[in-house]
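Possible regression after last week's pipeline update?

I re-ran a chain I had predicted before the update to compare outputs. Posting the input and the new output here so someone can diff against the archived version. Not blocking, just want to make sure nothing changed silently.
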Amino acid sequence: MIEQFFGTDFKKYLLAYALLLPVAAVAYFSNASWIFLIFLFLLTFVLSAKKMEWGMGIALFELMSNAHGLILFASLGSFVVSARMVIFAAVMLAWLYRLINKKETLILKRIHSMFVLVLFAVVIGFVNGFLHQSPLAVFKDGNAYLYLGYLLPLSCLSLKSQKYQVLQMLSAASIFTITTTLLLFYAYTHFSEDVLRTLYVFLRDIRLIEITRYGNGFYRVFEQTQFFVILFVFALLPFVFQKQTKKEFWISFVCLSTSISIILLSFSRSFWFGLIVTAPVFLIALFWKKWICVKQMLSGFGKLIFSGVSALVLIMLLFLFPIPANHMSGWGISDLFSSRAMDSDDVAISSRWNLLPVMLDRIQLYPVTGSGFGKTVTFKTDDPRARAIYPDGTWTTYAMEWGWLELWLKMGILGPLSFAVLFISFLFVLFRTQETEQAWIHLWLIGATMFLLATHTFSPYVNHPIGLGTILLIYAFLPTSPIIHVYTTVPEPKQTSPQPSMAGVMQQDQSV
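New output (post-update):
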């Protein structure tokens, strides 16, 4: 039941997320970031040393809160130390401490063979990078892949009811992202830049959200962690296609309509493309798993359409709310969405197409072994921010769009092949798993896998902790995963109808 996404743990996580920005602001404006980072390191280390599940929970909580790990950060010369780095160091050191003190057993065979090719490709990227580029460039470009190091402490765990807690953490993180997106959209469409300048600088420095003026008083509000909101939507969708009580319907309606609104406000064509590609696969999975019939499909689509229309209404209400006054009509909003989807002259699109032939040329130089992490390309961009620095538009970077091609460029042909094999392995396991009350979780993971695979086409997520963290999350939830193989019963809300519920997650998995 949908209510099980919003239990006691959800409330605790949501409160923690609500305190996150005030704490970050205090650290930022008081110049006390080092104090906060040291405290975070010690807290994470102590908790992880006592119980590794707690350390992994802190890592996941931080990942879902902000894209770049800079919710807390401090400078060490020209090097930036972030909260994500501090948490990673603390968890890994605690794991080593537990290993040395024989509180953990290193069981590498519990890391599934499907990761071997990926890890080998990453090693190739680092080796070639250090051979041909500066160590600092290699670290800045490839450090995200160190996130896969969490496979080591994760492989030592035998998680039980933590599945239930992870899902509630995902719910809380999604509500946090939805709320911040809508509030910032309202603020920037109603108050002057002079009033919001300090807020803008703070959000820019911690790299929480990108806010872009679109003209006529409208703003794009994009946050990479909106990715997790879409994962949350895929967790809810199986229940939307089932018969619901009145309370369940309104809970799912509010969650879906607000989630759709932030997907629209993100103006992310990569998100939109990912959803378009994932939708038919998800629909096939619904029938494959015998989760729905045609009648339920039509009912579910009706609910989705209702939620989509409500999302547009919510955006217009926020934008046109008369305090303070806003003078753009609601018709202008629809024009913005349609032009964003169809405008082939957009600078982001033109820059991507300018980048494509340059990347293909570089790939041809080392198609098998790759050029290594830290490899840069130089191309012409139409991005006004780049042209403000270089008027001719010449731009050199190691951070590239065309995610699958970037894997090929830096890790050789094994880069895209290894991740493709990993995703296909996930989908194979999820589609062939015997049908149980856990089928909804398999549907969620199918949606998450396909969405990550498709979104990475235009915006690199697989080489980012968000994508890598999602891969680890999917792996941990796989029915054949050695990490989570025992389910226990947890307190559940009183059920009012015999529908598939979270209880299925906690039952003994017969497939293992």
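Follow-up from reviewer: compared with the archived run. Residues 173-342 form one domain. Marking as no regression found.
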